[in-house]
Amino acid sequence: MKKGTVYLIGAGPGDPGLITVRGRECIALADVVVYDYLANGRLLQNARPDAELIYAGKIGGAHNHEQWQINSLLVEKALAGKTVARLKGGDPFIFGRGGEECEALLAAGISFEIVPGVTAGVGAAAYAGIPLTHRHVTTSVAFITGHEHPDKDISEIDWEKLSTGSGTLVFYMGIKNLASIAANLVKHGRQPETPVALVRWGTRPEQQVLEGTLADIAAKAQKAAFKAPAITIVGEVVRLRDKIRWFDNRPLFGKRIMVTRSADQAGEFGDLLAAAGADVIELPTIRLVAPDSDAQLDNAIRELSSFQWTIFTSINAVQFFFARLACLGLDARAFASCRICAVGPKTAAALEARGIIADLVPADYKAEGVVKEFSAMEMNGSRVLFPRADRARDVIPAALDKMGAIVAAPIAYRNIIPEALPEEALQALEEKRVDCITFTSSSTADNLAAMLGENRFLHLLQGVTVAAIGPITAATCRELGLQVHIEPEKYTLSDMTAAIVSYFNN
Length: 506
Ligand code: SAH
Prior knowledge:
alpha/beta; Cobalt-precorrin-4 Transmethylase, domain 1; Methyltransferase, Cobalt-precorrin-4 Transmethylase, Domain 2; Rossmann fold; 4 domains; 19 helices; elongated; binds S-adenosyl-L-homocysteine
């Protein structure tokens, strides 16, 4: 049998965006992914759905798997012909025992490739706003293990040379031994006033930074119960954080915000919140699916040339509509004689991506805004197509009907309640770790209440700030017994993000 290849991949320090392009490609190639505690679990989403995922976690010093067991696992899988991705935190060759794994693979005649990663020292320093080297401040940097037992008779670390030999010192695994590290450095000539920063879970939304000096950092860390995993940065460069800090001072940093939209729609809103520094937790309360039968929509599409207007009130409607259009072998030209209204700029952008520029976007981005625009026009006898969700409000068809228009409102997609809610997200609610929950439509709130049951719904959301995208969603929240704290003036995701930012910063 042909032997498989092993890819030793640096996953980066935590932010899933910090893996390399090659690293991601190799994860996607793998039959087996063996991953560590420090590698962000979200990177596993790049694996094939049928890939075998094996956790080789190591927490602190307690090894779930001994290194030799990991080595033999890699060898065994590769000998069985599997392509293996070995995903390690940071960089495989910086305190990652990647070299040992290579030696084991070599001994078994297995080919391997190494994909470097952003090591924690580099990543955490960057996200703490501490340049590891800086002109006129320091010209060198050293990476050192802080794991060595302080009582070790003969240290492998030459403290005498190290203490003053390099401008910036970055210790990995050093939190337990912090007091002896600091004492050793001072004993061997480093000034006690030398600034020190501890960075825990660097590059992640839960990043914590503690600053001090060689003289007081150990006491401060103890007082704050500062724990691993953290790196310790020693040197004058630490002072630059005051000026250069950028990540952990963003307006929503440290806030856990829940997004309840459907999984395929959560991304855009999540990105906006994350850009403001929030830790985003997805709790999809909606699943969008095609209608039971395509007949209604297909008939309308075939008659598209007989309509004067088509109204789209969501990106979803655009997506599902165009999916059917394509299935029928048609494209944007089918709209040649029909004008198009988009409820807001996002829906208009979704149309534009499909080659259509909306003729009308109301000033007020909701159904009532659409009605207002049409009531200023002569609609008597006009044929209007309104592809809609199964549970949409009938504000638009009812109003157009009153204006004398002939409305066809086929169901383009259905909002259904997903089978289950993600455990991790529910746990965050149980443990009161969520700062804010966002509802971007009435059905997100209705569905969550239906899935949890009224008592549990109110219990889990007690004390959580509630943000609703607009007055209708807010009214639904209130009917369900919630107090609404945040309501943007305009009903867009960016206005909602801005409203959340201003709420938490006032
Ligand atoms: N190969 C890894 C290091 C593994 S040793 C790398 O290149 O980053 C484990 C140590 O790395 C931890 O004890 C801690 O000191 C450091 N570390 C890993 N991820 C970290 C993070 N996100 N923030 C701070 N330190 C981290």
